Amino acid sequence: MANISNHWHQRLSVLALFISLVIISWLAFTPKTDLVLPSIGDKFKHFAAFGYLAYLLDSSFPSVRFGLAKILALLGYGVFIELVQSFLPNRSASGLDVLADMGGIIGYWLFIPLWQRLPIINWRWQLQTQKM
């Protein structure tokens, strides 16, 4: 029964990851009507979004530990967003945004021992230990 539940958790994670990537891309690629100055709030949004994406990516592929491949995939997506934004009206590429993205990814990684103790999301690591 647990395997069926874990299977559905994984499938829902894949769906949530896809939907989140579509929404985040749409928000990132929509040209702004006014020039918006960067703020701390913007960096927090990058941090939170990439921490969330790190969890979803990790949960979508639980048989692969959260390592360099997943980190580089997320970081590549963040750099891609900034490159596209450099060509959009009233948008610009920002190295600080990429650093905030990295912060969210690393934040997720550092807190994995805590996440493993939370009943609502610890299924992800239970599945990994079952496959070993």
From TrEMBL:
| Protein name per the record | VanZ family protein
Q: Does the keyword Transmembrane apply?
A: yes
Q: Which NCBIfam families match?
A: vanZ_1
Question: What are the TM regions of this chain, as residue ranges?
Answer: 12-29, 66-84, 96-115
Does this UniProt record's set of keywords contain Transferase?
no
Q: Which InterPro entries match?
A: VanZ-like
Occurrences of domain VanZ-like (ranges) = 35-112
> What organism is recorded for this protein?
Spartinivicinus marinus
Q: Which UniProt keywords apply?
A: Membrane, Transmembrane, Transmembrane helix
